[in-house]
């Protein structure tokens, strides 16, 4: 493997000194890029794209050809995991993900098992192929959904606005939900370790829906399972530490708890004040975030002003990875992303030097 030419992202996650604030964007490869839409058309369905090593490699690198991003993220989806468990993932055009066999009765839940990792071999093959194509330009991030977020889709059968099925189970039959979460946590641990083994240089756990839980329930049904995963991960590979990022959307009220999970960095959505978050977590973890993705609809001057405000809010010293507070919208103008990258790199050099 080629030596890493830009390790700014990995250094910031470990709160080591950097020359500027590194950035990457959640969902940086995707529909807002015309070249992604072209490859997607060639591949067929979104799942065909994920399952083809060469196409997955191509779309992972697309945003890096356009923008000076400091990390690449594996092109895949969090729902490949329940798909490997036999739930039958499919995408209805314009409707988002769905499962043919959601967990709707106790028999299905009792039959659930940690899948054989060979079911996800196409993901590990993509990781190896992307590392080769990157040739050390920037580090590669691997990822998984959190046990709770995966369970939301597995039980609801697709996206939800109410989470009523999973929450009913949580209150009526907590032991059943714990059973699912235990299997998910063991699966995600094996899955992320295999990604690390294949070449992922940092990993992020996406807890997109943990923030919908009540106080106390978040800790018991989402965070505790992420802690188990973090404790089971291989944190050293090829002589380098592999940092772990935990991102709970809507987790701003519980930052101290998340920072105690054993992770290296905490992802923040846009509702959190970055400076306040830094005071709350102290020097335990690095912080990643947290521009409102909708700010990218504004003109470049307004984007630059928001970047300046966020960087000043974080303050001096390392330990910040710039990102959005959630995934980039498919309607974002790519030129605005270019303006964002330029502003983050230019405006962050002075504070870090000072
Ligand atoms: C909840 C979730 C999913 N997937 C993911 C999450 C967690 C992050 C979050 O909270 O946004 C994670 C994900 N999904 C995708 C990535 C790729 C890597 C990246 O560039 O960040 C990552 C990291 C590609 C994708 N995953 C999906 C697309 C769009 C697929 C297409 O039509 O081409 C992409 C590029 C499909 C997907 N996959 C999922 C949904 C809800 C959808 C539909 C989204 C939509 O229609 O806007 C489940």
From TrEMBL:
<feature type="binding site">
    <location>
        <position position="326"/>
    </location>
    <ligand>
        <name>substrate</name>
    </ligand>
</feature>
<feature type="binding site">
    <location>
        <begin position="27"/>
        <end position="31"/>
    </location>
    <ligand>
        <name>substrate</name>
    </ligand>
</feature>
<dbReference type="GO" id="GO:0005829">
    <property type="term" value="C:cytosol"/>
</dbReference>
<feature type="domain" description="Uroporphyrinogen decarboxylase (URO-D)">
    <location>
        <begin position="141"/>
        <end position="157"/>
    </location>
</feature>
<keyword id="KW-0210">Decarboxylase</keyword>
<comment type="similarity">
    <text>Belongs to the uroporphyrinogen decarboxylase family.</text>
</comment>
<keyword id="KW-0627">Porphyrin biosynthesis</keyword>
<dbReference type="GO" id="GO:0004853">
    <property type="term" value="F:uroporphyrinogen decarboxylase activity"/>
</dbReference>
<comment type="function">
    <text>Catalyzes the decarboxylation of four acetate groups of uroporphyrinogen-III to yield coproporphyrinogen-III.</text>
</comment>
<comment type="subunit">
    <text>Homodimer.</text>
</comment>
<feature type="binding site">
    <location>
        <position position="77"/>
    </location>
    <ligand>
        <name>substrate</name>
    </ligand>
</feature>
<keyword id="KW-0456">Lyase</keyword>
<feature type="site" description="Transition state stabilizer">
    <location>
        <position position="77"/>
    </location>
</feature>
<feature type="domain" description="Uroporphyrinogen decarboxylase (URO-D)">
    <location>
        <begin position="22"/>
        <end position="31"/>
    </location>
</feature>
<feature type="binding site">
    <location>
        <position position="208"/>
    </location>
    <ligand>
        <name>substrate</name>
    </ligand>
</feature>
<dbReference type="InterPro" id="IPR000257">
    <property type="entry name" value="Uroporphyrinogen_deCOase"/>
</dbReference>
<keyword id="KW-0963">Cytoplasm</keyword>
<dbReference type="GO" id="GO:0019353">
    <property type="term" value="P:protoporphyrinogen IX biosynthetic process from glutamate"/>
</dbReference>
<dbReference type="InterPro" id="IPR038071">
    <property type="entry name" value="UROD/MetE-like_sf"/>
</dbReference>
<dbReference type="InterPro" id="IPR006361">
    <property type="entry name" value="Uroporphyrinogen_deCO2ase_HemE"/>
</dbReference>
<dbReference type="Pfam" id="PF01208">
    <property type="entry name" value="URO-D"/>
</dbReference>
<comment type="pathway">
    <text>Porphyrin-containing compound metabolism; protoporphyrin-IX biosynthesis; coproporphyrinogen-III from 5-aminolevulinate: step 4/4.</text>
</comment>
<protein>
    <recommendedName>
        <fullName>Uroporphyrinogen decarboxylase</fullName>
        <ecNumber>4.1.1.37</ecNumber>
    </recommendedName>
</protein>
<feature type="binding site">
    <location>
        <position position="153"/>
    </location>
    <ligand>
        <name>substrate</name>
    </ligand>
</feature>
